[in-house]
Design a protein that fits this description.
Blueprint: H1 4-23, H2 32-36, H3 40-43, H4 45-68, H5 70-89, H6 94-104, H7 110-121, H8 124-155, H9 160-179, H10 193-216, H11 221-241, H12 251-254, H13 257-285, H14 298-305, H15 307-326, H16 328-348, H17 353-379, H18 387-415, E1 417-420, E2 423-426, H19 428-450
Antiparallel strand pairs: 1-2
């Protein structure tokens, strides 16, 4: 087997590649209508499609990894991302870009699968530190990727962004194939295609309602139909999953107190993180004359936000040691407290750029501790043969939190806007309300984390699983 440090490094690089996909098009987002010669409501799908694909694919990929080999599914997800990047790179119309961005969203599933691989191959004493490092990449990739994307956009054609993504994906694919060992711990049974279809339809309906509510109107017929219809499908899906032998997601495991509470805390923390991603860059880039911003360029603004990602990376070894000593529950509590401090600081002081630098450093502490804790808590509460699906479900809850934050904070900023220079600019009061919402989500994460049990609560695997030696997969 390759050195364990090399395995961790390769999976961390895969995590960086995954989070980079979300910041890839940020520098060109406002210019997409002009670049693609399409209305803004259509170009919004360049971002929405990736979010939807990531939310749907992650839990399904987790289950496929548990059944057919985690490395095999990781390679498949990376390959899909590379194909999507090439499709977008050679496209000049909106359809090709949306298709490419949808395929790029597949790579988000490599992070929960990578964390599950660590449980299978690492020595017990190294698992927590390695998980903390992989979890940190969720923030580090975006924080580092944003200035890189901005620099490429300023110096070259925007299609180069997608060629860079394809090249990075190809490198990661080769490294995973070479370094990461073949999966041998697998779950017996058949894949639940009906459950996968039901989860996909339900999630797409709910997430579309949240992501498009501001534009279409929250009480419009399409939003109500998508939201209510999606919820009904998810209810029927849950009823079906509880009645079959090999469900896509074992909801009885997901309903265990530590797993359920961790997922609810993930949703709240995802909201708090994405709210900061929406608020701070806008404040930094809006014109000074508007009274709401600091007039920085996209590159300068991304450099102000970047310290949060660097803090997450530096924290990863500390997070592992703290988890070994005190358990991951403490990390989640520290993460929530740090996010509360970040928003409280911003509510009190937000009149200078350095105020936002301090706030982003606190956000880095919050997400660094919180995102490291969540997979550790999950893996202490589920059987080893269900870590892929359970981590995928946890990632789904984080995605739901980010989607809800995007919709609610976007609605607040849009409602509290005034016309300046022919454009709608959020007012300082709208930003203040957004800070309060982000802080409230962090408080909710703290309250939920307080009720998570302190010790591990793993139960025996389901009796339908085989008891003999497992075959070698891949």
């Amino acid at each position: 087997m390759p050195p364990q440090g090399a395995i961790v490094a390769v999976l961390a690089l895969a995590g960086l590649c995954s989070s980079f996909m979300f910041t890839l098009v940020v520098p060109i987002q406002s210019k997409l209508p002009e670049l693609l010669q399409a209305p803004r409501e259509d170009t919004a799908w360049v971002v929405t499609a990736t979010l939807l694909a990531a939310a749907v694919i992650t839990p399904i990929a987790g289950r496929l990894g548990d059944m057919y080999g985690k490395r095999r599914i990781v390679l498949a997800l990376i390959a899909i991302m590379v194909v999507g990047s090439v499709v977008a790179a050679v496209s000049h119309g909106i359809i090709g870009i949306i298709v490419g961005r949808t395929l790029q969203g597949a790579i988000v599933g490599v992070v929960p699968l990578g964390i599950s691989i660590l449980r299978d191959v690492l020595h017990e004493r190294r698992i927590d530190s390695a998980i903390a490092l992989i979890s940190a990449t969720l923030g580090v990739g975006g924080a580092i990727g944003l200035p890189i994307s901005a620099l490429i956009t300023e110096r070259s054609d925007w299609h180069v962004l997608f060629w860079v993504a394809a090249s990075l994906g190809a490198v990661v694919f080769g490294l995973v194939l070479w370094i990461v060992p073949v999966s041998v711990l697998c779950t017996a049974g058949r894949f639940d295609f009906v459950g996968a279809a039901g989860l996909t339809v339900g999630l797409v309906g709910v997430l579309l309602a949240f992501s498009r509510g501001n534009e279409w109107g929250w009480l419009s017929a399409p939003v109500l139909a998508l939201g209510i219809g999606g919820l009904l499908v998810l209810v029927l899906w849950g009823w079906f999953e509880l009645r079959i032998t090999d469900p896509l997601l074992d909801l009885r495991v997901a309903a265990r107190r530590p797993v359920l509470l961790t997922n609810l805390a993930s949703l709240a923390m995802g909201f708090a993180l994405f709210a900061s991603n929406v608020i701070y860059p806008q404040m930094l880039e809006l014109p000074v004359e508007s009274g709401s911003g600091f007039g920085l360029s996209l590159l300068a603004a991304s450099l102000v936000v970047m310290p949060s990602g660097l803090v997450m990376m530096v924290l990863s070894p500390l997070s592992g040691r703290l988890s070994n000593l005190f358990g991951p529950r403490l990390l989640l509590l520290l993460g929530a407290i740090s996010l509360i401090a970040a928003y409280a600081f911003t509510i009190a002081w937000h009149s200078a750029v350095w105020h936002l630098v301090v706030a982003n450093v606190l956000v880095g502490f919050g997400i660094g501790f919180g995102y490291a804790a969540m997979p550790m808590l999950i893996m202490r509460s589920v059987p080893a043969n269900e870590t892929g699906a359970s981590n995928g479900l946890n990632a789904l809850f984080r995605s739901l939190g980010t989607s809800i934050a995007s919709a609610i904070v976007g609605a607040v900023l849009a409602t509290g806007s005034v016309t300046f220079g022919g454009a709608q600019i959020p007012t300082p009061d709208a930003f203040l309300v957004s800070f309060v919402l982000g802080g409230a989500a962090a408080v909710l994460a703290l309250i939920v984390a307080l009720f998570i049990p302190r010790g591990p609560t793993v139960e025996e695997p389901r009796p339908s699983l085989p008891t003999g030696p497992l075959p070698r997969i891949d």
